[in-house]
Amino acid sequence: MSEILHGLITRSQSGFYQVETEKGTFTCQLRGLLKRGRRLGDLVAVGDRVSITPLRQGTGIIVRVEERQRLLARQAPLPQGSYQQIIIANPELVVLVFACAQPEPRYGMLDRFLVIAEKQAIPALIIANKADLVGEQAAHELYDHYLPLGYGLLVTSVKTGLGLAELRQRLSGKISVFAGPSGVGKSSLLNALLPGLDLAAQSVSRSTRKGRHTTVVRELYPLAEGGYVADTPGLKALALWDIQPEELDAYFPELKRHVAACQFSDCTHVHEPGCAVLKALEAGEIHPLRYRSYRRIRLGEEE
Ligand code: GDP
Ligand code: ZN
Q1: pLDDT at 23 over 80
Q2: How many CB atoms are located within 10 Å of the residue 227 CB?
Q3: What CATH number is given to the structural domain containing 59?
Q4: Hey, which of 22, 260, 262, 303 has its CA 20 to 30 A from 83?
């Protein structure tokens, strides 16, 4: 009986997977048996917990993939049917980086990201970066309406260091995935968290990947405090996939709680009489910016 080790896939490259175990790091391939049968999706991805059989010189074979707790994935339509492409397995936190200014807050995009986090049941932490440009209080005014919805919020400045210690604390021990529009300071934040890793230097290779649909995570970067962070290579990495218009209200926590009281069970909450969501909006119980995002997504409008 050969030895079995358990580990985490922290890197993937052309069919080779780097697996971190208690006995060190192994470069592994998938056992042939796992590859049999009809493929409806990626078999393994960064973030998967696996069992391996070590071979010589730091190599090994992945013999088993543990059941995934969570998943960030997209359905890729292929001629032979839909294929599930895994962006990252087992993410425990999605960190949505936005700015207070330069660029202005993009609530529409943030709300789209939050819908995905809700759909995949991944806790979200919103970062309001560049607080130094507007002041801490104004930063809170721009983003505090997300707090009662149950999302985490941290006001930060990479420039002054505000909030960075707390960010480290919140990431510690978890697998986190970062997303956000460009220019908000995502690379600056990651560089501050991962000294020695110059993400800006990789921006050239990142831009060459822009046109591609595949925006899967290739690598988890270990944090000094324990845990890992992953950067989604492009903005499109977290577009709105696979969300049916009828299920959208379930991914807005503050809308969801009113839906049962709507007069029509198929209420779209856009124009119907007896709509409890519209009533709550009028009563000031739903933030107008959040409702605006709901409406735009529901009606299929661009962000
Ligand atoms: P990314 O596109 O989101 O990765 O953003 P970058 O990390 O490349 O940052 C974009 C620009 O914003 C750079 O010029 C950074 O120096 C600047 N920047 C990043 N964080 C802050 C901050 O907290 N405050 C200010 N004033 N500028 C920042
Ligand atoms: Zn309604």
Answers
A1: yes
A2: 19
A3: 2.40.50.140
A4: 303
Token code pair at residue 258:
């009113």
* For residues 149-165, average pLDDT: 97
By DSSP bridging, strand 221-222 and strand 228-231 are antiparallel
Q: Please report the atom of ligand 1 found closest to the CA of residue 200.
A: 8
Asked if residue 103 has a cis previous peptide bond (ω within 30° of 0), the answer is yes
Q: Are residues 283 and 162 in the same domain?
A: no
State which ligand 1 atom lies nearest to the alpha carbon of 158: 23
Domain hosting residue 96, numbered range: 87-231
Give me ligand 1 centre to Cα 20, in Å.
Answer: 32
Q: Evaluate whether residue 74 is within a structural domain.
A: no
> Which ligand sits closest to the CA of 262?
2
Please give the number of the atom of ligand 1 that sits closest to the Cα of 156.
23
Whether residues 29 and 150 fall in one domain: no
Residues lining ligand 1, Cβ inside 6 A: 129-130, 132-133, 157-159, 182-188
Length, in residues, of the chain: 303
> Are 76 and 156 spatial neighbours (Cβ–Cβ below 8 Å)?
no
174 part of a folded domain: yes
> What whole-number distance in Å separates Cα of residue 126 and Cα of residue 129?
9
- CATH code, domain carrying 279: 1.10.40.50
Label residue 212 by pLDDT band (50, 70, 90).
very low
Q: How far apart are CA 230 and CA 151, in angstroms?
A: 20
Residues 138 and 219 in one domain: yes
